[in-house]
Amino acid sequence: MKIDEDLLLSYGAIYMDYAAKENIFFTGHYPRYYFQIVKGTVELSNVLEDGKEIILGVFLEGNSLAESLLFTGQPYPMNAVAKTDCTVLRISRTGFLRLLKHDPAITLGMLERLSSDLFYQYHMHTIVAESQPLSKIKSLFDFYKDFIGVNNGRVFKVPFTRQEIAKMVGLRVETVVRTIKKMEQECLLTIRDRKIYY
């Protein structure tokens, strides 16, 4: 859910700029702010003990980041890293909660957003649990295509690199590369200028 920028500013939000690859917050830090992306792309990820990175989600303009943790008070179980140069609106937890108390429509929208996030997480767990690489990747593409509203047989330009796909579905990059080639041979997708169209 995108909250109107002027409304956030009226409750004390400020614009923050982050360079590509700069951390916005870290695993273990306690949430003190609501973050809404104004420009750019942000990736939420975890790094496992063996050093393997798992991408939990990629967020674009208008998306907010891990706002559910503002209600629980629990530390972040993930990192947020600017994937590209980003501008983010940041408002204190206190200001954000005050906004929700005074605007029932925003509160309802936030509940809808949190429900959507839960749906996303449930679906991603199902994708990761798939045993076959082709099924994992196809399910990921189908889900994102539907999630962003690309339907009626329209072609979806996959916004992820092969390495990001591997990190999202728990595969090795080499396996993703082989599987995508196989999917191309089976006419399930096309590749133009190294970009995947599904």
UniProtKB/TrEMBL annotation:
InterPro entries: cNMP-bd_dom (IPR000595), cNMP-bd_dom_sf (IPR018490), Env_Response_Regulators (IPR050397), HTH_CRP (IPR012318), RmlC-like_jellyroll (IPR014710), WH-like_DNA-bd_sf (IPR036388), WH_DNA-bd_sf (IPR036390). SMART domains: cNMP, HTH_CRP. One of its GO terms (molecular function) is DNA-binding transcription factor activity. The keyword DNA-binding applies. It comes from the Bacteria. Keywords: DNA-binding, Transcription, Transcription regulation. The keyword Secreted does not apply. Residues 18-100 form the Cyclic nucleotide-binding domain. GO terms for cellular component: cytosol. Pfam families: cNMP_binding, HTH_Crp_2. PANTHER family: CRP FAMILY TRANSCRIPTIONAL REGULATORY PROTEIN, LISTERIOLYSIN REGULATORY PROTEIN. This is Crp/Fnr family transcriptional regulator.
